[in-house]
Structures are given as structure tokens and as C-alpha cells.
């Protein structure tokens, strides 16, 4: 079981978060900006965390907010990192009706950045599949 190193994450919680889009553009790579701030999606099977199996905590690449434990990660064979549960209070979910599809968008609760979507077709007891873009994550191992 992975535990959160509390001192480290308390420090991360005090980081300054960019307040406007120009500051985000300076902080993030163009690919990160497109996905995290403009609600884009990386191509399937292209992300660095699709098949990664290291222990640790996946954090928001934009602000460092702890999001998912590696214990919750599973291979959904969809082409994106998938998790069956988020860390309590780490994310927000909002109805997304873009492209004439109803689905739940997942955003970082701390900075509001787009992470991916959550579906109710997960194979574990939670029934959830958080389908998250790799570029939105950093692994703190």
C-alpha cells in the first residue's frame, strides 16, 4: 500500500498556482497546455504512463496536487492510464456534453486543469475507470 508522505505534500499545497492563461502558457509545455488548459486529449497509447507499473503517487503535472495512488492503477487496454479510484478530495467531476456525448470530465480540484474522463465501466469493485491523459500526470515515487 502506498502512503502519502505528508510533509512533502503539505509543501506542494503551498506552491503558487498561475492565475491566468498567460502564466499557464509559461509554466506548461505546449502539449500540456493544450490538454490541461484547453481540454484536449493525447493520442491513445502515446503517453508515458500507459504501461508504467511503478509504485508511487500520481500528481497533477500543472500544480503537484496528489491525484491517484499507483495501487488504483490498472490496464484498461484503452490506451490511457486508468485508475479505479482517486485520492479523496483530489478531483472534481463535471458533466461534459461536447461532441454530443454525455460523460464526466475529471479536473484537478486544486487548479481546475482538465485530466480526462471517468466512466462507470471499470472492472474492480468501484466500477470506475478514470481515463487520464499521461501528460497531465507526474509520478512521485
> Averaged pLDDT, please?
89
- CATH fold label: Metal Binding Protein, Guanine Nucleotide Exchange Factor, Chain A
Major sheet details: 6 strands, antiparallel
Helicity level: 10-25%
CATH architecture: Beta Complex
Q: In CATH, what is the class?
A: Mainly Beta
Q: Poorly predicted ranges (pLDDT <50, ≥5 residues)?
A: 1-14
Helix/strand structural class:
alpha+beta
C-alpha Rg (nearest Å): 14 Å
Oligomeric state of this protein: single chain
Strand order of the largest sheet: 3-4-8-7-6-5
Whole-number total of structural domains: 1
The fraction of residues in strands falls at 25-35%
Number of strands: 9
First-residue to last-residue Cα separation? 13 Å
- The CATH H-level superfamily is Peptide methionine sulfoxide reductase
| Outline | globular
Number of helices: 3
Report on the architecture of this protein:
The protein is an alpha+beta fold and 141 residues long. A hairpin with a 5-residue loop joins strand 1 (57-60) and strand 2. The radius of gyration is 14 Å and the shape is globular. It is built from three helices and nine strands; from the N terminus they run H-H-H-E-E-E-E-E-E-E-E-E. It has a single domain (6-140), classed as Peptide methionine sulfoxide reductase (Metal Binding Protein, Guanine Nucleotide Exchange Factor, Chain A).
Task: Spell out the blueprint of helices and strands.
Elements: H1 6-13, H2 21-27, H3 30-37, E1 57-60, E2 66-69, E3 73-74, E4 82-83, E5 91-96, E6 103-108, E7 114-119, E8 129-132, E9 137-140
Antiparallel strand pairs: 1-2, 1-9, 3-4, 4-8, 5-6, 6-7, 7-8
Amino acid at each position: 500500500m502506498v502512503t502519502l508522505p505528508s510533509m512533502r505534500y503539505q509543501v506542494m499545497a503551498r506552491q503558487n498556482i498561475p492565475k491566468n492563461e498567460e502564466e499557464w502558457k509559461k509554466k506548461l509545455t505546449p502539449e500540456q497546455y493544450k490538454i490541461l488548459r484547453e481540454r484536449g486529449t493525447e493520442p491513445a497509447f502515446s503517453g508515458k504512463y500507459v504501461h508504467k507499473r511503478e509504485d508511487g503517487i500520481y500528481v497533477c503535472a500543472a500544480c503537484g496536487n496528489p491525484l491517484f495512488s499507483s495501487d488504483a492503477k490498472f490496464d484498461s487496454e484503452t490506451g490511457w492510464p486508468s485508475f479505479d479510484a482517486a485520492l479523496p478530495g483530489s478531483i472534481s467531476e463535471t458533466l461534459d456534453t461536447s461532441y454530443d456525448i454525455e460523460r464526466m470530465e475529471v479536473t484537478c480540484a486544486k487548479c481546475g486543469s482538465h485530466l480526462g474522463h471517468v466512466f462507470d465501466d471499470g472492472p474492480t469493485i468501484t466500477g470506475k475507470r478514470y481515463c487520464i491523459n499521461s501528460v497531465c500526470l507526474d509520478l512521485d515515487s
